[in-house]
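#structure-requests
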Amino acid sequence: MKVSVIGGGPGGLYFALLAKKAWPRWDITVYERNRPDDTFGFGVVFSDQTLDAFKAYDLATYERIRRRFAYWGDVDVVYKGKVMRSGGNGFCGCSRVALLNILQDRGRELGVQMRFQREVESLDEFPDSDLIVVSDGIASKIRTANEAHFQPSVDLRPNKFTWLGSTKPLDAFKYFFRETPQGIILAHCYQYEPDRSTWVIETDEATWRNFGFDRMSETEMLPVIEGVFAEHLEGHPLIPNRSLWRNFPTITNKTWVKGNAVLVGDAKATAHFSIGSGTKLAMEDAIALFEAFRTEETVKKSLAKYDTARREEVEKTQHAANVSLAWFEHMKRYWDMEPVQFAFGVMSRSKQITWENLELRDPAFVREVNDWFSKSVNSQGFDIDVKNPPVPMFTPFRLRDLVIENRVVVSPMDQYSALDGVPGDWHFVHLGSRAVGGAGLVYVEMTCPSPEARISPGDTGLWNEAQAAAFKRIVDFAHANSKAKMCMQLGHSGRKGSTQLGWQRMDYPLDSGNWPVLSASPLPYLEGVSQVPREMNRKDMDKVVADFRKSTVFAEQAGFDMLELHMAHGYLLASFISPLTNQRKDEYGGSIENRMRFPLEVWNACRNAWPEKKPMSVRISATDWAPGGLSGEDLMAAVRMLKAAGCDMIDCSTGQTVPYQRPVYGRMYQAPFSDWVRNEIGIATMTVGAVTTADQVNTLLASGKADLVALARPHLANPYFTLQASAWYQHMPQFWPPQYLSGRDQAFRNAPRERSEQTDLRIKARPASHEVKEVIAKKVA
């Protein structure tokens, strides 16, 4: 095989040496535009897992890199004059130029040819190559020249950053947050060899302009930055190396393969520097490409396998990087937080590191977070035992006069099992068992204020006395046998109504017996399939308002503790809010103020009919996940209007407005919207969406992303999620029904042993090399 590698970065070099080692007869040449010792940047970062991969694939390379590593186990968040340290993180850094020289030398030993100062403009320059590996970086000329084929997408992020070095030695990875008259500015810092450290300076564009960096040369900006971080530099200078201010480009490509050419490294995909994965991704690309050739028979099959099998891991890393970078883009949002919560937010920002991850690494740090959280709850008038505080999920929460025992919520889940809107035995068992299961708040599925407001014939309703009485039976049982509070969620299906049951053809019209549907505008949900809704007129609006008001009165008669209005998921009230579904030309269309007019009319009618001492919330779709949908500015404006109208909490969901949505899924994927609403507007929020563990619940609460956490599918599988978590965390004050006390005692006895066994397994499974573990252990000691 004749192989040409375009670009002498870590990804291209590592693939070249791995392939040459495995197949010595291959003719492999690396073409690099720069000289051997040229590099732009200072240090690179590797995790434990990446280290073990190096060791497995080429021990000689690993040993040489290992000898150049600077190790650290601690991360310091320096914020408002306080240093918050989290230990046990296990990262390593080394000089980028040293890494490149090691890879170059190892490649030469194995017979890889190197051609430096050789610019490659086109794939046509290698007509006789069997394989062309394109690793020519973020600004890849090959990708750009073949843009129509690779179909790259470049998302240029708003923050400004520049890459600098220093002679300042550091004993940990450091985040230096500084508030200046110009704005907030941050340094991401780590040591990569003796007396050398990397300093990545990041800030928003407004602060960047306030400093005048847009008008300064590299030489002029250095003393300004040195002045900002003088306390931390302690007299050491900053060192430039083509340290231009840039905006980070998040790059993806629809395909990574063109014929016999394949993209690797930053040419293929980028991950923000805040998770230290750029070099890691490039070298893991090399390993994945090497593995594809080791398992497949032809170049075509090998590249096809790489292009598919590698994507999941790359997209997962990019998603974590995107969540991480968004945290830094909104540093100002968290600036009023206490230092310990701020530090926990920094550590858990990408969602890859959670409460129990951190507890495993540094129990003292998590204990400090836990102590702070319990004291902050006590400051709101509660009486938690601060000497033995519960984890965040088992702290109480107050909305108006309602006190919720813990922060776990059973999310509203349609059961499609009502008869004429009346909840039956299925609902009694479904809701009753989840109340007994320990959740602090249990939501009833979206319940409709009229027969024509239903999604399907199986929906629950609250338009008559029989329905109210059936709900009262459920609520009375929950109140008598648990401490769960019960929330009625009222909603009107709008254009998504008169459809089949959820386990049939969801969103498709009934085969017979359809009823007319309403919406803000006459737009069917599924074009050519769904009914065309009637655009609501004033008479329709008056009826819907009256229906909601009547259902609110019935909800109070049934004894519900809380009321929520459903303004999400493309249903009737949501259809007014989203510009994708509201094309009206009257006073109910156009601006967000107009689009919120009718939802607020319904809100005010219900709030006036609902007891003042009881709270009300609203479920919203914070994004439509579709072009032209609800903007961030309109979301903030809508929430401000709801808050001004007396809304106590925003239940943050997303999407389901249009069938062509493109959600970005992942664990806790909707939490950033709850975070945004809570910390920008200053209103209580509930988050939902792929939250599956008690660990995640604690993470979301401690980092300030939400006040309550709702779980749907986990509660379908396990009604006793909360009771089991109380045993896991040894929270004895959690209420268990007296009939279950013997089960509680056994669970509390078994949990410490089970937790200890799981912790031991997690420690043994951590992919740190022995050398790294030994160095970190010595530093911790």
